[in-house]
Amino acid sequence: MVSLVTEPIPEQYLYRLTFWSRKSTKVRLELDKSADAAETLETKPITATAGMATEPEDLPWWRKIFNFLCGVESASNSHNVEQSGGETKAEKPKTKEELAWEAAEFLQEEPWWRTFVNVNAVVLMAVTIFFIGFYA
User: Fold this and answer.
1) Which of 63, 86, 95, 125 could form a disulfide with 59 if both were Cys (CB 3.0 to 4.6 A apart)?
2) What is the number of structural domains in the chain?
3) Which domain holds residue 41?
4) pLDDT for 56-97, tens place per residue?
5) Would you say residue 41 lies in a domain?
6) How far is residue 102's CA from residue 1's CA, in Å, rounded to a whole number?
7) Can you give the C-alpha Rg of the chain in angstroms?
8) How confident is the model at residue 101, as a pLDDT?
9) Which residues fall within 8 angstroms of residue 15, CB to CB, at 6 or more apart?
């Protein structure tokens, strides 16, 4: 009921935010943020390693194996990669048009992988239905 009463968000703010405009290459304008939200983000940076041990030596052996199998990098490894990447080449800042094009291009998938995933989904659903029907 509230969505029927409030005015809709203008089109310029919706590029790549809805299903129908997800592949749009148009530049999306940012919605105005409140001063409190902007202040909170500036004072408290969010890190991926918050609450985790900083050194790999601090982790137990089972956690190291778990992190390796799940593809989680330690803070020291990711820090070394960032340093080495920054020294080899200097990247120029990208324009908003380039960022919009990259965001739209990111969603493109190869036809072979799309078919592979769809076939596997159908096979897994068929197996699941068989097991539910067999054991019901």
Assistant:
1) 63
2) 1
3) 1-46
4) 578 898 998 998 888 888 766 655 555 555 555 668 888 888
5) yes
6) 36
7) 23
8) 84
9) 21, 24, 26, 27, 28, 100
